[in-house]
Amino acid sequence: MVKRRKVGNLLALAILATLNERPAHPYEMASILKSRGKDRDMGIKWGSFYTVVGNLRKHGLIEAAESGRDGARPERTVYRITDAGRDEMLDWLRELLAELAPEEPRFVAGLSVMAWLGPDEVIALLRTRLAALDEEIAAERAELARLLEEIPRLVLLESEYHLAIRAAEAEWVRSILGELTSGSMPGLAEWRAFHETGEPLAERGSTGS
Length: 209
Prior knowledge:
- This protein is mainly alpha-helical.
- About 65% of the residues lie in helices and about 5% in strands.
- It folds into 2 domains: about 10-100, Winged helix-like DNA-binding domain superfamily/Winged helix DNA-binding domain (Arc Repressor Mutant, subunit A), CATH 1.10.10.10; about 105-195.
- It comes from Amycolatopsis decaplanina DSM 44594.
């Protein structure tokens, strides 16, 4: 069962994991996360970064280790993870790896109401998406191969997973395009007629036409 977290933003998990390595000030944390591509893996919104840091401190998951000033620069607070923060990080991590949770990808939302567009337009749009997917997959495969020469696979599994998901999506989109262009998809004729006549799909089904 998915738990309600004191600080539920996935950015909080990224910060806790970073501080579990060593104490750091917020600018340093952000630099580490960006260099490791965590903004893509966790959908980080940088505008909320300092708010999340403040909430983690408020709930006792991190604490100030020291504060210092470098010349004329603003004072920087170095944070470290607390025992409670480490427990939270490990519990959260176990939940994410073991339990299913509902996800609402934008593509799924579009698919759910795509019948409001005509079949020919959907075909064109899916072809555009497939071309973008193929380009992204090729680039990610090349980048992953390069990284594997320098970094153990264990710490690149999130990139490997993302690539596998994208490849599966591309294969599925390609199969749907095949059905649409060949005319073999069930209901395609009714869908096309709906856009030609304006007669609602539900009404066509209820009349048996």
